[in-house]
């Protein structure tokens, strides 16, 4: 019997412990942000412990950053968290992409962008969307604050080895259908907990054709299907992406040789397999209050078959049997670690080019990092958005979780390229509709969702 | 961490599935830099009306449930964000045990770090607990891996290592640092491509 990509990665990182029991796993890269780290550093101080490997730790601030004017943090408590991170990084000798620094941005965007995230690694961060980094062929997962403290102190983490699930993506993707739609459809069809207890590997022709950015979008949302980890085997696309990045190995050819050992031997090695033919896949939009409550754009909203659906309709102010295209949109948000990369911003700009958003719509475009912002500006994309009537903002998590001043008002339907449509996620009583960047951009122009596969409607 | 061996307490049912950590503790309360004080904000958006007064319909606000230490709930409890604040808030409120259909993996780990015992039992058992009166006690024996409710006994599974940690209430980091030599020798074996 062979081994899966995940098995090989796992075996390379076991420091101690037997199979079937929690094992001590070595962490190659620990990403830190301001929200889930203060109590961890405090714990180190109380116990007079140091950070074991500052050179394997990298910090930035993202969740609290106001994206209209980043240097003007009005919320005193947000400011306190940001300052606490600055002080902690100084005291413990940790690299920090500080406010306004060219490298500052959403933690899951800057890790890959800087070449910190690499194949063959174990990557952790006090944030559930750490799954994103699995796109490089690494074990990457979110951890709680106690675990952050544990990793800071020991560079290791106790974990019970999960089971493995292979998701085979094959067929032909129609024009207008995006990586986001693949993962949204998988969750809509299999539920928000189908991946609980599993490490998922996405494989197949479709994955091989996708860019690193798109692979990241898919792995990012593995957690919305319950899986702590989503991953893709490293290949030429991965290696090309990493070449010349600031923190990528200098001797990259040698590293590539090493990385090439990480792949699944036989599909029969997975504990479970999901087959998914993307050929008939339509763009997806969410209508409810968890990511599985989503329908294809040519579909209608489901009937009320249980209390959870009833509660979701009550919150969203929608009712069964209306068409997905009839969902009214008054706000749009393009950004986040799911879809805030340059390629996402380009997709949205393509749709907005030469158009204007509907009068009733407010539109925020929030690049995932300062570098992305500057690259987009070099391409003149900011101008396309501004001419279309959108606000072009500074990088940060922004309205993805609305912990900062960037909140969607109560009762407003917001088409959003983010990953969670939970109650109150984007602001108290705000109504989130998840979709791909192109779908969200098109919704801004029309004031409701449209099927972007039909060229004539754009 | 406080040790748990046997716990006797009353229950509070909140039977929805997929209760996410954004619901358990909304983000505006994550800005604190301490580990305590989150209990006041537990389930905030369900617990308080728009004018800030407690929602009398929400079960956590009912005085007869104020001493409940065992939360009975649905499937996939604690999904979503990794925020440990969710575990801190439940603990701060006074919950010591959760009995759900399943948990998100990250939330489960956060419970193990904070002395909240996350138990998995089938719906049939949970529905029975959900019907108990607010002053009706049940007993959870971690030692024997059993929940005892009147004349019924329900067994549950738990990984032996996590079980021992709950029983001993020990600090993980201390334990790991005892393996320093193993970590050191592991570090020597990591390939570096400078
Ligand atoms: S962009 Fe959203 S999902 Fe991603 S790290 Fe920030 S808050 Fe979390």
Automatic annotation (TrEMBL), chain B:
The keyword Isomerase applies. InterPro entries: 3-IsopropMal_deHydase_ssu, Aconitase/3IPM_dehydase_swvl, AconitaseA/IPMdHydase_ssu_swvl, IPMI_Swivel, LeuD. Gene3D superfamilies: Aconitase, domain 4. Heterodimer of LeuC and LeuD. The gene is leuD. Residues 1-123 form the Aconitase A/isopropylmalate dehydratase small subunit swivel domain. One of its GO terms (biological process) is L-leucine biosynthetic process. Catalyzes the isomerization between 2-isopropylmalate and 3-isopropylmalate, via the formation of 2-isopropylmaleate. This is 3-isopropylmalate dehydratase small subunit.
């Amino acid at each position: 019997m062979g081994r899966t990509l995940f098995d090989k990665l796992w075996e390379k990182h076991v420091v101690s412990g037997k199979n079937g029991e929690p094992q001590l796993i070595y962490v190659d890269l620990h990403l830190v942000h301001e929200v889930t780290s203060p109590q961890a550093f405090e714990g180190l101080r109380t116990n007079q412990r140091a950070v074991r490997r500052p050179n394997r730790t990298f910090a930035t601030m993202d969740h609290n950053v106001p994206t209209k004017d980043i240097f003007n943090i009005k919320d005193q408590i947000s400011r306190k968290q940001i300052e606490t991170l600055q002080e902690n990084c100084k005291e413990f000798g940790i690299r920090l992409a500080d406010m306004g620094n060219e490298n500052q941005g959403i933690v899951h965007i800057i890790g890959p962008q800087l070449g910190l995230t690499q194949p063959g690694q174990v990557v952790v961060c006090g944030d559930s969307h750490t799954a994103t980094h699995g796109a490089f062929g690494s074990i990457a997962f979110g951890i709680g604050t106690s675990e952050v403290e544990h990793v800071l102190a020991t560079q290791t983490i106790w974990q019970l080895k999960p089971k493995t699930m292979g998701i085979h993506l094959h067929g032909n993707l129609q024009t207008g259908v995006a990586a986001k739609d693949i993962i949204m459809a998988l969750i809509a069809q299999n539920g928000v907990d189908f991946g609980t207890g599993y490490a998922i590997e996405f494989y197949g022709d479709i994955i091989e054709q996708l860019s690193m950015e798109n692979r990241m979008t898919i792995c990012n949302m593995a957690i919305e299907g319950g899986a702590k980890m989503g991953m893709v085997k490293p290949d030429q696309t991965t290696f090309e992406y990493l070449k010349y990045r600031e923190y990528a190995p200098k001797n990259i050819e040698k590293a590539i040789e090493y990385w090439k050992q990480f792949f699944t031997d036989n599909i029969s090695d997975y504990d479970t397999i999901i087959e998914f033919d993307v050929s008939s896949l339509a763009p997806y939009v969410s209508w409810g209050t968890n990511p599985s409550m989503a329908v294809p754009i040519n579909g209608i909203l489901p009937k009320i078959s249980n209390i959870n659906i009833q509660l979701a309709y009550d919150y969203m102010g929608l009712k069964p049997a209306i068409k997905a295209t009839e969902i009214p949109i008054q706000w749009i948000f393009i950004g986040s670690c799911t879809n805030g990369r340059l390629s996402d911003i380009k997709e949205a700009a393509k749709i907005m080019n030469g158009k204007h958003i509907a009068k009733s719509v407010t539109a925020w475009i929030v690049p995932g990092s300062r570098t992305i912002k500057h690259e987009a500006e070099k391409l003149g994309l900011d101008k396309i958005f501004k001419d279309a009537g959108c606000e072009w903002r500074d990088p940060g998590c922004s309205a993805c979780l609305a912990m900062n001043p960037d909140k969607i008002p109560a009762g407003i339907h917001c088409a959003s390229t983010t990953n969670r449509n939970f109650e109150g996620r984007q602001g108290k009583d705000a109504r989130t509709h998840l979709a791909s960047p192109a779908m969200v951009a098109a919704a801004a122009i029309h004031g409701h969702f449209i099927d972007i596969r039909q060229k004539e409607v754009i | 961490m406080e040790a748990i061996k046997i716990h006797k307490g009353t229950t509070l049912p909140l039977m929805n599935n997929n209760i996410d950590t954004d619901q358990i503790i909304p983000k505006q309360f994550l800005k604190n830099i301490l580990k305590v004080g989150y209990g006041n904000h537990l389930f905030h958006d369900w617990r308080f009306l728009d004018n800030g007064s407690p929602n009398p319909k929400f079960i956590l606000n009912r005085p007869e449930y104020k001493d409940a230490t065992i939360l009975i709930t649905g499937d996939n409890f604690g999904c979503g964000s990794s925020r440990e604040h969710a575990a801190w808030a439940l603990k701060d409120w006074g919950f010591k045990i959760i009995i759900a259909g399943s948990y998100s993996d990250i939330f489960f780990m956060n419970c193990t770090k904070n002395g909240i015992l996350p138990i998995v039992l089938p719906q049939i058992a949970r529905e029975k607990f959900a019907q108990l009166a607010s002053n009706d006690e049940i007993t959870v024996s971690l030692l024997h891996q059993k929940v005892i409710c009147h004349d019924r006994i329900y067994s549950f599974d738990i990984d032996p290592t996590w079980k021992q940690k709950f029983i001993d209430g020990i600090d993980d980091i201390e334990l790991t640092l005892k393996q320093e030599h193993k970590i050191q020798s592991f570090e020597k074996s990591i390939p570096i491509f400078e």
